[in-house]
Write a structure and sequence with these properties.
This protein is mostly helical. Helix content is about 70%, strand content about 5%. The strands form two sheets. A three-stranded mixed sheet has the order 1-2-4. The protein has a two-stranded parallel ribbon with strand order 3-5. Helix 12 packs across helix 13, helix 17 packs antiparallel against helix 18 and helix 19 packs parallel to helix 24. The longest helix is centred in the middle third of the chain and has 34 residues.
Length: about 625
């Protein structure tokens, strides 16, 4: 009998939700339209590589790929580090070159992603513990330095890292050999260079998530542990780290996924033995009508791995019960660090934070220098920024990026409002599915989305239409891809705002005769205008700096006068051209400045909301 009553109660709740969903046309529209849009422009593009693969004898393709030593090899090629004596600059020196061992593109990608994740997680967690739990002179300055890697310029930041570690004309070898007089030069190349650049750029994601998780811990839990005689180490091990695990897991998973999808650093270091570069390189084959089975298989692999990680982490974070600041809880109060501890922080942490900011500082040095071929830059000029307007290729790319990003932002704004409203008002399975679809793009590699969009728009019913990026301009495909890739930033910002608005305001307007649409437009949206503005700034900036989609779709029609490529494709195209490197630096400096402005404004307006959903 009890089971029967339980089933009846569940059925009643389901009927009530369905009745509420169909009770108002706007509620129904706010659910159906985003679901349809995301189904067509997210699920279908992600499913197309799998569909193409299944139609092409997948078992045979998998056998050929996994037996090809180019993709999977049990016999390593190369060495992690090589030491040899060479003659450079008219004298004998010892060359220490870190390059990495290759096991084929597929295995290499997962090794690189794993190493990046482990090191970045360890570094980011340690920095978060020090800068969140402890107070010492200069702590705010350290926190600013720790945030700098968040502001990255595709290709330009990687170029600076490569330049710094170049054993011939890099700054590190110059200081060791020419300044200190030690006949040793150190270089990074290949896989080792990619891993180093990724660690320097991605540890900040772990830092943000872990520091937010630690800041939300109820301080009384730490005080009680100390009152019971626990040492500092035991408090960290038994209280802080267990409660910060959701932040650690989220940061680690995002780091792994972003490392797996990274295309800029492999291009900069010329490392083609990675999945991202394999997909990028084979992407030119479909433009002639041929399809690369290996690229399709690798696309399916990265999508399945990334989506699985996202779903598991989301389930883990939502199911894990941990203490945070709530009503009656005591906010975390940093502990005073001893003089010895402060000295250790300044001796070890400060040099690392300064070192990790080299890519950002170097981009501005590159932008304002006349040339930078040797270890040190030469001259000071503003011509590189002027070239952004006078060079027709670059100025057209800027105009294209602005057009694509503004158009995408308008679409994102409308759909995000509908998704956030539906998710906060219609609780249940549909709401969960909609929210998952809206946020999962942050965990789907851009190379997979770009590949899926190419297949979508070059097959019926879009083939030979204005959507076809080969026959016509790739601008429409790029714009729609931007809407999918960057929608999570806007959705989370608006969702956070709607959670703070009581439904009674909307209900009062409706009871006074206003339609639901009018109540939302005149009551709800003005109340969350700050959230919308903050989310819009962040979304726009990350649209304009989108790399994977821009590089893979942007060059389908070539680069000439009146081209359709965005900024990031031109940055990749100009990277190794005469004087082009300095223009890439100027474009990178512009993107970093835009990111800095966007994050500063959105953080101020949203009072702690971060672009990764961290509070």
């Amino acid at each position: 009998m009890s089971f029967k009553r339980l089933d009846e109660a569940q059925m009643k709740r389901v009927r009530n939700k369905i009745n509420f969903l169909f009770s108002d046309p706007f509620i129904l529209f706010s659910t159906i339209f985003p679901l349809t849009y995301l189904a067509i422009f997210l699920l279908v593009p992600l499913a197309l590589p799998l569909s193409e693969l299944l139609r092409s004898d997948p078992m045979r393709i998998a056998e050929l790929v996994f037996q090809n030593p180019r993709y999977v090899s049990t016999r390593p090629i190369g060495s992690i580090v090589s030491v040899k004596n060479v003659v450079f600059g008219g004298k004998n020196i010892t060359l220490i070159l870190f390059s990495g061992v290759s096991y084929g593109s597929i295995i290499n990608s997962f090794i690189v992603a794993t190493i990046t994740m482990v090191v970045a997680t360890a570094v980011g967690t340690l920095i978060a513990i020090i800068l969140t739990l402890y107070d010492f002179p200069g702590r705010r300055f350290f926190q600013v330095l720790a945030m700098l890697p968040l502001f990255a310029a595709p290709f330009a930041s990687g170029y600076v890292v490569r330049k710094f570690f170049d054993w011939r004309y890099g700054l590190l070898s110059y200081v060791i050999d020419n300044v200190l007089g030690v006949p040793v030069r150190i270089g990074l190349d290949g896989l080792a260079g990619v891993v180093t650049a990724q660690i320097l750029g991605l540890y900040v994601i772990v830092y943000l998530n872990v520091s937010a998780a630690i800041a939300n811990i109820d301080h009384t839990l730490i005080e009680q542990a100390q009152n019971l005689g626990s040492s500092t180490f035991r408090v960290l091990k038994d209280v802080v780290l267990p409660l910060a695990l959701p932040g650690i897991a989220t940061g680690a998973s995002l780091t792994f996924i972003l490392s797996l999808e990274d295309i800029a650093n492999p291009i900069v270091f010329g490392e083609d033995r990675l999945i991202s570069y394999e997909i990028f390189r084979s992407f030119q084959d479909p433009t002639t009508g041929a399809r690369s089975p290996a690229a399709l298989l690798m696309t399916v692999i990265v999508v399945l791995v990334s989506a699985t990680i996202f779903i598991l982490i989301r389930s883990y974070v939502s199911l894990r019960s941990y203490a945070a600041v709530g009503r009656g809880a005591k906010p975390l109060k940093p502990f005073k660090l001893s003089r010895i501890g402060t000295a250790i922080v300044y001796l070890f942490l400060l040099p690392f934070l300064l070192f990790s900011s080299i890519p950002q500082i170097g981009v501005f040095v590159l932008a304002f220098s006349s040339r930078w071929y040797s270890a040190l830059p030469e001259g000071f000029t503003l011509d590189n920024f002027a070239s952004m307007l006078t060079d027709p290729i670059v100025s057209t790319a800027i105009r294209n990026s602005l057009l694509y990003s503004i158009t995408a932002l308008g679409i994102i704004l409308v759909i995000s409002i509908l998704i956030a409203y539906s998710s906060t008002r219609t609780r249940g399975a549909i709401s969960y599915i909609l929210d998952t679809l809206a946020t999962i793009p942050i965990a789907i590699p851009g190379i997979a989305i770009a590949s899926g969009f190419f297949l979508l728009f070059t097959t019926p019913p879009f083939k030979n239409s204005i959507f076809d990026p080969v026959i016509y301009s790739p601008g429409i495909a790029i714009t729609i891809a931007y809407t999918v890739r960057r929608m999570p930033f806007m959705v989370r910002a608006i969702y956070a705002g709607l959670q703070q608005i009581p439904t009674s305001l909307e209900e009062a307007a409706i009871n006074l005769g206003a339609s639901r649409f009018l109540a939302i437009a005149t009551v709800i949206l003005p109340a969350i205008a700050i959230n919308i503005f903050g989310g819009a700034i962040t979304t726009f900036v990350y649209c304009i700096s989108e790399t994977s989609v821009g590089v893979m779709l942007g060059g389908l029609k070539g680069v000439s006068i009146g081209h359709a490529a965005p900024i990031t494709f031109v940055m990749q195209n100009y990277l190794e051209t005469p004087q082009g490197t300095q223009i890439v630096g100027a474009l990178g400096a512009m993107l970093i400045a835009l990111q800095l402005i966007a994050v500063t404004i959105s953080t101020f307006l949203l009072k702690g909301y971060s672009i990764f959903g961290v509070r």
